[in-house]
């Protein structure tokens, strides 16, 4: 029998691209997708006619539990950067996203999987985010400063899974790890800054760099947080999706070579960037497209960054350095694009954000006049 996969995030940026990659690699899989309404359902149905649509949201615990009970694998590929319930209420409607840090959803899904009437274990693959490593800069308010601290998911895994409880995503990460047992095997995928055009049926836009470009265009100037010396990893969206596919394939094999539970934490990256360099490249691209009056980059404070975008101080000013070892060693994950490709993507991002704002080349000259 074909494995049954229940996918959350099918119309989102991460989940949509992961679903595309999964269907391309394994059209034989039986896939059910959680969708919020008929419009979302139509988006999925237009691209994946064989997918079964499940109408509901992350607060519908009964529906989630019932669907998990029917599945062999739950792939929760939702966005996981919103730092609070308030942020989710304010931002999610504009970005059209659900929040992976929904504790009730995780509990309902893992409980449903554990209730399956089979001896073989079910699998739950959860999406966290590199904001979990922002905690040191958030606590010390050292935004825009460099850091020499580099985490990894191999020899340094215990340090990652022992971060303080107030770190972003940490509480739900613990819930996922603690849900692991004989009946349910769990894994966490932790993406960084993601770039590239998504291939899913809904949102095809990333967040951190597009929001940076959008904020520059709206404020009519280039900027960086503090000294702009903080660093972070990055990954091409299709490479991230390949990691999800490989983890699902391991689950289909009964666990495969993957590790699960306390050892099932997978960083994903293929290089890192300095955020000040990203700011300069973004301002340069916007100026070249005649959307900013100059390519000068100004230093802004934590408060100013947060006024431009929710949590902008951390999104663009905090460090989150890590090496992704586990997926490479165990899953044979081989990303194809790196940091240079990210910088090459910026001009297209600026153009797309300008279009969404209704701006046209020459806007900068009109603003300056």
From TrEMBL:
Q: Give the molecular function GO annotations.
A: aldehyde dehydrogenase (NAD+) activity; NAD binding
An annotated GO cellular component of this protein is: cytoplasm
Instruction: Name a single GO biological process.
Output: alpha-amino acid biosynthetic process
Q: Where is the NAD-dependent epimerase/dehydratase domain?
A: 181-254
Lineage, top-rank taxon, reads Eukaryota
Q: SUPFAM superfamilies, from UniProt?
A: NAD(P)-binding Rossmann-fold domains (SSF51735)
Where would I find the Semialdehyde dehydrogenase NAD-binding domain in this sequence?
4-90
Q: Where are the transmembrane segments?
A: none
- Give the InterPro entries listed for this entry: Epimerase_deHydtase, NAD(P)-bd_dom_sf, NAD(P)-dependent_oxidoreduct, Semialdehyde_DH_NAD-bd
A Pfam cross-reference name:
Epimerase
Q: What is this protein called?
A: NAD(P)-binding domain-containing protein
